[in-house]
Amino acid sequence: MPQPAVPPAMATATPVGYLGPAGSWTHQACTELYGERGLVPCEREELFAAFAQGRLARLCVPVTTSLVGATP
């Protein structure tokens, strides 16, 4: 399946943290939004701490998941 083109305004080399491991749905959403460069997989606590400390420029966090429904 071909990858959609990433709009130039969204392509980034700045760190974008996402919830979950590489290959997760959140990772897929990040690659479609931001491209492959600068993506950082994180667990929930690490993700928000890294953002608060300025180590991540953006976050990508799911609102719901297919496994547990609403994300706590």
TrEMBL record:
SUPFAM superfamilies noted in UniProt: Periplasmic binding protein-like II (SSF53850)
Prephenate dehydratase domain segment(s): 16-70
UniProt-listed Pfam families: PDT (PF00800)
Source superkingdom: Bacteria
The protein's name: Prephenate dehydratase domain-containing protein
Organism: Pseudorhodoferax aquiterrae
